[in-house]
Design goal:
CATH architecture of the largest domain: 3-Layer(aba) Sandwich
Strand content: 15-25%
Strand order of the largest sheet: 5-4-6-7-3-8-9-10-11
Structural class: alpha/beta
Shape: elongated
Distance between the termini: 78 Å
Oligomer: single chain
Largest sheet: 9 strands, mixed
CATH class of the largest domain: Alpha Beta
CATH topology of the largest domain: Rossmann fold
Order of helices and strands: EEEHEHEHEHEHEEEEHEHHEE
Number of domains: 2
Number of helices: 8
């Protein structure tokens, strides 16, 4: 029996309104990775995206969700009361009613995607709920295979790809970066086989330096975004928020020129926080730039504020 075929021009077109699950961050029905070193906010980001998709509130308070819908979540590392508290805090920060939030949490203690029985049960659960997004956090708790062996990783990822294609749901997997991976390109820093990086349609990578968190975005079929600065903010609970708007294109000026331009346009001296927001520069980078510019005499410091010399 031959395989079904049709001419390329007869393939169905995807409506533009169905292109994104979260505009700019996650493609519709995409599989992918949220990756990064430990303690850099991966789980907070995954939960923020879950709240956004389930409620329709903008992800990170900035990225729209065109078609919200149910979310299915399995959080393997955190107690259920911690998951509840985090989701409630994110919902509160997003102005969402937590009691009606359409996020469904798998309460089974373990889920093994390398076991046929668990794969079938997950498939049946997704088929029953029909979520717009499935979140699995983290990958290391979902199997007992060798993550460095492509022959073992590929079948596990293939099962999630099959689930995505058959049930039309996006799949987000949280995964760790390898130690010492900071000098690599974000996708190449993921722990384990390169199959993981290649698998993703939309991938988000977090990097943390002291209190600065940077988000890198890549897509298989769309341009990525310029690196975004994020921060964990308190209040009733911790939640991630974007410090700067998504870039519309590459900056016309280098960072030092952006600092000088911001100071030139300002009606008076600016604080570091005001400069950071105006220039869309990470706190650590801004500090280094100000030190250099001050040493050269191009910028003067007046108390906690800066101005052009």
């Amino acid at each position: 029996m031959t395989l079904p075929v049709c001419r390329a021009a007869q393939l169905a077109e995807r409506p533009e309104t169905h292109r994104w699950l979260i505009e700019g961050l996650w493609a519709d029905e995409a599989v992918g990775i949220v990756g990064g070193q430990p303690k850099c906010g991966k789980s907070f980001l995954a939960l923020d995206l879950a709240v956004a998709v389930a409620s329709g509130a903008p992800a990170l308070r900035r990225f729209p969700v065109p078609r919200p819908g149910p979310v299915l979540l399995f959080a393997a590392e955190d107690p259920l009361h911690v998951v509840r508290d985090r989701l409630a805090a994110i919902a509160q920060g997003a102005g969402v009613d937590f009691d009606t939030l359409d996020v469904h949490v798998i309460t089974q203690p373990t889920l093994r995607l390398d076991l046929e029985t668990d794969r079938v049960r997950l498939h049946q659960t997704v088929a029953a709920l029909r979520p717009r997004l499935l979140v699995l956090d983290p990958l290391v708790r979902l199997h007992r295979i060798d993550e460095n062996a492509a022959g073992e990783v590929a079948p596990l990822l293939a099962s999630l790809r099959t689930l995505q294609r058959q049930l039309h749901t996006a799949v987000l997997v949280v995964h760790h970066a390898r130690k010492g991976g900071d000098r690599r390109r974000p996708g190449q820093a993921l722990r384990g086989s390169s199959e993981l990086h290649a698998w993703g349609d939309s991938n988000l990578y977090l990097h943390r330096s002291h209190e600065d968190i940077t988000l890198h975005v890549e897509h298989r079929a769309a341009p990525g975004l310029e690196a975004l600065s994020l921060e964990l903010r308190g209040g009733a609970g911790l939640a991630l928020r974007a410090n700067s708007p998504p870039a519309q294109g590459p900056p016309a000026l280098d960072p030092a020129d952006r600092v000088r331009q911001a100071l030139a346009r300002a009606p008076g001296p600016l604080t570091r926080a005001e400069l950071r927001d105006a220039c869309r520069i990470r706190t650590q980078t801004l500090g280094q730039l100000l030190a250099r510019l001050t040493a050269r005499g191009a910028v003067v410091q007046r108390g906690d504020r800066y101005a052009l010399a």
